[in-house]
Protein 1
Amino acid sequence: MESFIYIEPSEADIGPITKQIASRIKEIPPELRGPLKGIAIGHHLDDYKKSQLAGLIDELIIVDSPSEYAYNTEVISNILTDIVGEKDQGILFLGFTHQGMELGPVVGWRLGIPVMTSCVSFDWHGKEAYAQRTIFEGKLLVTCSVNMERGAVISVQKGAWKDLSSESKGDLPLTTVTWKEAWAAEKTEILAINEDVAEDKEDITKAEILVSIGRGLGGPEYLPDVKELADSLGGMISCTRPVIDLGWLPSYRQVGISGKTVAPLIYLALGISGQNNHVTGMDGSEIIIAVNKDPSAPIFNLANYGVVDDILEFVPELLRQIKDK
Amino acid sequence: MRVAVCCKGIPIGLNLESVHIAEGDIKSQGTDLYINEFDAYALEVALDLKESYGAETFALSLGPLRSQEVLYFSLAKGVDQALRVDGETNRPELAAGSLVQILKEIEPQIILTGVQSTDWGGGEVGVYLSQALNMSLAYAVVEISQISDTSIRIKKELGGGKIAEVALKLPVVLCIQSGIKPLQYVSAVKRKKARKIQIKPGGKLNLKDMEQSISGLMSYEFKEVTLTPREGQAEMLIGTRTEMAVKLLQIINESV
């Protein structure tokens, strides 16, 4: 038995999801999980990032892949399938991110091992593990027993587990795997990678206060009130995916799996139900205040403070109170 | 060019009482089924390919008889043919496996799915189809820019605001991200007309036929469905609207 974590390329630091997964899996007795190995494909880990992994994993595997294959999920799938499949009982953990949503089921299908996506809890007992995942927009939770005898693929929701990493502890054993031509892409070619750049230079990841809207706002005609509120509080506007899809706001304001990850001091969630795709991008906020007219909205499970009210009535009231002062 | 789009019927407004585990699967009691919101965007892409490239379009759905509503909706939107695979499952590997045979018969150059389903909350079916049918794959597709006889150019999200421009060999499975096209309204007249079009049988979900190929993937069991715990529940502000607004502003002021 060996456990592997796929380390996605990230910006300045090791991605939070990698640290969260490693922290949880390290708690599992080594006789169950075996050695915990990180897999990084390409050379996106500098010395600083490697030092962040010391103590979190038992070994780092770096696959020496050509730079043109960065973000090529066909190639990454080939590599992960080979490395995890080399062991009779290889367990692959990865984030429930865009990459993880694609890679996990590919590896599971090819190796013929169970795939459990979007997990929020994971307890390992002998040959079985109990994993929980949310269903029906986060309102319900299903518990599954996963047979671990032949290996498994487990993808984990961002923020489901705590990052327990501390300062670097000692050396991290490193293995470099040389590139194999058999891993080369046959069907997929990455032509370019582009970043969605903010036109008005507002960077929501740097805001101390975010006033964030969901489609519960009802329509773009109500945006001026929200903008006024954000300005009055000295914050910025952010939003959920459906708000982008509806064309109410530009995509660089999106928080969530396909948008930005934010951690402001105050996250004021207006008309946001609290689906996983969104909350994984904002659950690191210091104080979350949710306003929603549905008292059973999952956002109230996460928020520090909640108001059950119609935001179309409540936001004007907030503005009145600010003006009165 | 043939384009197949997978459209899942999703129950709306379920609660703990209407969901249970039976026969190794998650079952929901007989509510109406609506097209999975993410698949609705895949359907828009199929119709766009019909208009732009003259593609012959097929809508597929796995589900019980009541899931035909999803296919009538697809027909009303303008797909050429609709096929239903009879059966019901919330296991993604089974759902994918049940669609493989009919997709082999259709031989599409492009298979479209939504990026995930709103009930199960995963995005496995399109990925599994690409593996079962040995097709190229792109996940979270936000644009189709060019199609030739042998390849397709698309843009896909990588997360965190990054977009990859990718060329893929055909045939391909594209898991379509929401918002790729605006959802078009369908008139009541079109919906009524569509109900006169025959929905073709696309086979049956038969576990025995698939067991050998996906038994390893199926090595898990559903044990229990519960409400998502509310131990982290928010401190609710109460009082009149004005009182709640004042309190909320006070919390913000004291925290910043």
Protein 2
Amino acid sequence: MNLHLLSLLGGRLLVALLTLLIVSFVVFCATQILPGDVAEVLLGQAATPEAVAGLRAAMHLNDPAILRFFRWLGGMLTGDLGISYANNRPIAELVAGRLGNSLQLAAATALFSVPIALALGITSAMLRGSLYDRSVTMATITVISVPEFMIATAGVLIFAVWLKWLPALSFARDVHSFGEMLRIYAMPVFTLSFVISAQMIRMSRAAVVEALNTPYAEMAQLKGASRPRVVLRHALPNALGPIVNAVALSLSYLLGGVIIVETIFNYPGIAKLMVDAVATRDLPLIQSCAMIFCVVYLLLITTADVIAILSNPKLR
Amino acid sequence: MAIDAANTTTASQRRTGYRFNLTGWISLIVILAWALIAILAPYVTPHGISDIVDTDYFGPMSLQFPLGTDYLGRDMLSRILFGARYTVGISLAATLIACSIGVTLGMAAAVTGGWFDTVLSRFIDALSSIPSKLFALVAVAGVGSSIPVLMLILGIIYTPGSYRFARALAVNVNTADFVTVARLRGEKLSYLIRAEILPNIIGPVLADVGLRFVFIVLLLSGLSFLGLGVQPPEADWGSLVRENIGGLPFGSPAVMAPSFAIASLTIAVNMLIDNLPQKIRDRSE
Amino acid sequence: MSPLVEIRDLKVEATTDAGRRVEIIKGVSFEIAPGEIVALIGESGSGKTTIALTLLGYTRAGCRIAGGSVSVDGRDMAALSEKERAKVRGVDVAYVPQSAAAAFNPAQRIMDQVIEITRIHQLMPRPAAEAKAVELFKALSLPAPESIGSRYPHQVSGGQLQRLSAAMALIGDPKVVIFDEPTTALDVTTQIEVLRAFKSVMRQSRMAGVYVSHDLAVVAQIADRIVVLKGGEIQEIGTTEQILSAPKHPYTRELLAAFSPVARVAAQAAATASPPPQPVLELDAVSAGYGRLQPNGKPLMLAVDAVSFKLERGRNLGVIGESGCGKSTLARTIAGILPPSSGHIRFDGRPMAPLARDRTPEELRKLQIVFQSADTALNPAQSIEDILGRPLAFYHGLRGPARDARIDRLLDLVHLPRALKHRLPGELSGGQKQRVNLARALAADPELVLCDEITSALDTVVAAAIIELLKELQRELGLSYLFISHDLTTVQAICDEVAVMYRGVKVEQLPADQVGKAGGHPYARLLMSSVPKLDPSWLDTLERDPELVAAFSKR
């Protein structure tokens, strides 16, 4: 049985690696489709043909695409992320500090939103059909249906412009005290939490509702178990796999949300770096940022899968 | 089983028809209104979209300018009505691309099975593990953001989701005995897909089309908000928020109005999906 | 002595899709004395489970008790609040579910679930509860009673789970136990063990019981009185002897008649009159299974092991066996869904390709298969007309009026009104769907029809009518049937010969009336002796050779 479990986990890991390979190929291709020459772009209008040819050779742009792909992939694996076109600095250096900032933001959001979202999702499943449940459902549908920037701008309008509780759109000052840090993090974390909680509430509610519709939940009720006992002892343990999945999937929405939120609040994270890179068409930087995002995403999803496998008693 | 008891009694009097609730009706009307505005945009705008009609910028709501004016003093209402064209049009085209490719491939993979299904599904799974916003950023960086390109990019990004959804449904139907019977009769792939699978998954698939439309509207707006989507002088709802973001500290209506336009459309589609007309299957007595 | 349970004019309403309320239990009254076992019997939709659940004050989603009273030990369950009902459940009234496999929580150990009632109602300390559970496991003759509680539900067999669910119900010493079709999902040889265990425990404890079932023979073994239900109304109440020997209500008589169908005799006469028989289907050492082929050329999971037989034109062969014996795999192999790993199939004297897609259209047309569940065998999105019209167009190229006329004739053949052709399958009853299912096979003008458990999902009366129809069609169209079933009585009613399968092997093939007689294969004897009889003393007097049981029961 345990051998079976190991092979299952090994399989998941292998799938994740294969996926990463395909993803890196897609990312590489997408940034290479456009005709037009990087060397010309870099040297600008005034470049002489000789200079362009020299740079092309230096950048190995004359090699076949597949060779360049593997060279690029090899660089990624060994930590050599290349040089930014825009300011000629090593990408690893640019990314390092920014990544930390983004992870801080993500961690704060996760710590804040996961407990609240799960509590809302599970309680609304328990009180299915009640006014409380219907309001939660209505609110989540609304949040899911509106763009992230709307939540962010509405938040700024309410808390910064009307109530004047929080700083609005800037991050450009040093943090001296805990209180100040709270005030600065509040808006981005608040916005991001809204975005990912909605998904988490919906999915955890669905998972618990499904587990409550099973014959064994009905059986527990017929044994005289109270509603909370049916949910906590019988439905939740079986909904654990789907709920962990919901959490992982929602955290992956952080990636999408973070792109908007970092831009709107001018937060010096990796997503802001990437958006700026897209605006300047700094391809090596875009590729690196994209790969970092995908790795994080795959880590989340694979972790969720592993937990789901481990929580299944049939595989224990 | 208890409900079954009522249904199995001999059907003598059948009431057929559909039940459609109020929320459904309101949602449908909102959607149709935006569709109509998108088609008739040039005829319904009170002012020219690039005419500077107000001496002041970020003007407040007034009788003359119901939604105020933008950062150059142009009429916001006209710009939003015209923006519907881009938001609805591009999103609709992208949705059609994503769903027609996704659903067809999904059904074919489910019915064919074997290595075709395995390889295709593995590849699609990998594609869908690229977060959509990120995919869009990379693609826009690579190929730019003209309107046809945007349609194509958005369509491709949401094809994997549509494929996975349709395939999961089709796999389910494919195991039913009636498909086996058709196969044993000697039917070909196209017949199996068209007559046996599609009619049995069409309901959920249409709901998924709506959901995907919402996703696409949100992604397109997000891209435009970042300045990477629809490019000036053309402006969809996302771009309108971007160009007027400077009005936020003044609480200008120009910032929130386009957001509300997006929300009204996406919430209406979501509500319509949740409140689709239900066929009355009531045959007892 | 005053009754323990007293149901008076009970009415239960269900809400339909259109939001209308429909009465599904229409004023039912009966009582149960202490220690008495009352059976509720009827076809699906008769409301028997709904009534039984009201004893717990419980109705399924969309239903509610609309009137009357359900008094259990002096308390009216219909009038109690949900909190008070919860106090009664498990302590005064306990429930044994239809499918124990689904009713056990897959994420909890068995012991925790068996003693859960004592935890919820704080009846006794945990060690005492566990000791009591082990006593119950012994009384229910479960293997390894000391350790079985530490397993997870998926680690024990279906028959054991069913007995464990009885232990789960009995742990709180309830006054009434509700058995909701507890043996329906089991094989006959397992059913006997479970029935015996239930009966002895109930006898010892002197608890009252409600036994819900559709099977009169099973009920006859365990019940003191029988309540016959149809369409939410009581047709007849009587002692078990009276119902079985002197039924008053016509519906009860119909139920009893369906239980002993007329054996087939006509084919015997026809066969002697016809020229020397020629096999329509011939299997030569056919093996099939699932999974990768091993080096010895056999699949990983061998489901059918070197089965050979001949089926002569105009005659019928039955294949019987318990779940997992390979009979359905055999049907799938013959139909060309699953290719045999070795062996040959000959049809009309010619070898046939292993896979359906490699067979000629003529071969596909002449060999039709009818599946068990008409619910999944008919496309819910196509009208009956389209379902029947497609094979006509596909095989015979029929169009327009010619096709319509043929559809009408097919509907006549299976005794369905012509007006039905505009309906969708979802708008037909179970029996009607199965008739359409048959008609579609007939549309191909087949020579051989494979019938895979086609009566198993139907109520007894409806199934008996389908068997009669099959016989009639055979007389008119000269068909041959390969009839696969787990139910020996049904097979004997239609087949000339019966093949018995056990673990993929055909253990014997005999004329239908010879099966299970002395001198036959021991497994066939065991199987035959396990089929419940209408005689109430059958279970008590039945003697089974313990060695035989040990050798063949799957546990």
Protein 3
Amino acid sequence: MKEGSAAERLYNGLIKENPTLVIVLGMCPTLAVTTSAMNGIGMGLSTTVVLALSNLFISLLRNIIPDKIRIPAFIVIIATFVTMVDMLMEGFTPALYTQLGIYIPLIVVNCIILGRAEAYAYSNGPASSFFDGVGMGLGFTCAITLIGFIRELIGSGAVFGMPLGNLSDFTPTIFVMAPGAFFVLATIIAVRAKIIDNIEKKKGERLPVKHTDEDGIDCATCSARATCSGHMGTEQQ
Amino acid sequence: MTFASILGIMIMSMLINNVVLSQFLGICPFLGVSKKVDTASGMGAAVIFVITIASVIAALIYTFILDPLGLSYLNTIVFILVIAALVQFVEMFLKKCIPSLYSALGVFLPLITTNCAVLGVVLLNVQEDYNILESVVNGLATAVGFAIAIIILAGLREKMKYNDIPKPIQGMPLVMFTSGLMAIAFCGFSGLK
């Protein structure tokens, strides 16, 4: 696939550099809104819209924005689109809007968006930046829909809001409560680590996957390095 | 406005609706800067400092500018810019005027701009229709809740450092399992309601 082409960007966001499961970014909405699969889709798609449009506009304006004040400029552009999405959702999908609540305006501080603006859109053309946003957004959507699906199934015995018989009489509610979010995400990341570990053993060599610090966060090459708040604390220790 | 209602807000946002463990705000620093109790306390102190000041400023701006002019749809944009500017300003002010406090909190301040707990608290204050005093109390209590959670997690991680953990669970999954167990413990506080 050609570097920067639409297909390559979509593949990159969905699989290769999946923002949630591979780079472990944007943890707040990932944990907070995934009580059901529908919430995951709603949150994912609204983030995708913001991500694609802000990437497009930042890329179009990249020669005008002065280097020194680029982060505030990015934040204003992102906040504008978030406000628009917020209003549209309040008007057209009021039920989902109430469910997601405060986490819609908080899309502004989702480090995936600022991370992509800084790492990709600011130095690439509008078309590939737009598809980079769509790819990353869909990768995020798939990941949080998966987490929402698992939590909804185990915690409330339903699939996309449809109850499976009287399964809900036997399900542990803890999975739709706060602790369940941590457990499900931890399990998914651990299973992924195990699979990669097995592949490495089979091949008898280390895959050039990524070099992580002991927390499993790949800070050195993380796209949100400039703006994320996690890495400085780990580095200075 | 009674003392009881203030106390209610404090317990509510410090323990029952703990900002990290039940509302999932500020997860990045919670997971990232919780390796040692020292640094975790520094981060906690810096967050208390910034969230409290941000709640005051944002409450003033909302009550005297945005709300009377009917501009509350600009909340998100205005608040994020105010927080970003505020963090920069606080950093410069401390560096110049209170160097001892700066050397203790300095490294943590720039990290806080993108901490969603700050914006989250400010937006919640508006959503809950808190007046200025209630906003400040809510901000302070939420930040103290964050500090409590991150210091407890750092303490647990220091103890777990020398344990024999299966390889796939090492690192991030272990921290998340630990946080999950802490979240279960904090669920117990809902009995205080």
